[in-house]
Amino acid sequence: MSQPDLLRRFIFEEFGVRGLWVRLTDSWQTAQQHQNCALNEQLQLGQALAAVVLLSSTIKYDGSLILQAQGDGALKTLVAQATNDRKIRGLIRGSVPVNTGSLKDMFGEGRLVITISSENAEPYQGIVALEGENLAAALESYFEQSEQLNTRLWLIADSTEAIGLLLQELPSQQPDNADWERINILASTITDQELLGLDCEDLLYRLFHQERVRVFDGEPVTFDCSCSRPKIENVLRLLGGQELDSILKERGHIEVNCEFCNKLYQFDQIDVEHLLQRDKHFPSDSLTKH
Known about the structure:
Layout: E1 6-12, E2 17-24, H1 26-33, H2 39-56, E3 63-71, E4 75-83, E5 87-94, H3 103-107, E6 110-118, E7 121-129, H4 135-147, E8 151-157, E9 162-169, H5 177-187, H6 192-197, H7 200-208, E10 213-215, E11 219-220, E12 222-223, H8 229-239, H9 241-251, E13 254-257, E14 264-267, H10 269-279
């Protein structure tokens, strides 16, 4: 029986350092099913999905956190999203097959964008250059530049699991530099095999058995796509009646495929007439109000 997809939080009780650990199995394998690219490219998505779970868990919000990497290289777009209730989805797109290498080898020149959308706050967006050997290194740079918090991050994925580990200073009680350096040195001894092979408690004991570490109960993580027919209809409305009519005349119907979950939405002539007709029942200025 496979282990459930879990996020675990932990803190060092004697100084201001917190940690997060996540293992994705079922959710990661579901996300893979909807991607049409080589395994070594998909593994970048696995790392990104683990990363957004960790990043979204460092803040309090009701909404979603989106990580997006864009470049002019073989890999064009990488998107991963996590909600405050630990629902994830993601996609990766490239132009040609790519060998694993540094971020620049895979993405070329690009940028990493972190967007936080919350129901009770203005949207936040942080942007850093897409630089470093891997996604973990780029995200460490993001925290250093945008949050000004010492942060270490480890991400790894294979065809079965995606694992992430994050260590970070607590904003309200930053530790002594010597304490942070000691934790950093201990954590840096971890291997990829240990990340993939050990559960949270065993991993923390392996690294920090001489420290007082408190581990909290796990929080489940699931794959869930937020696409829906009403959302697709809103997108079609933006195209306008003339464009939709042109597509119908050419193809006889309209098909929209969700890039995150591969669900297919179909609209025929009657469907399009109904969604356009509904717009006529609202004054033009009412469409911008909620």
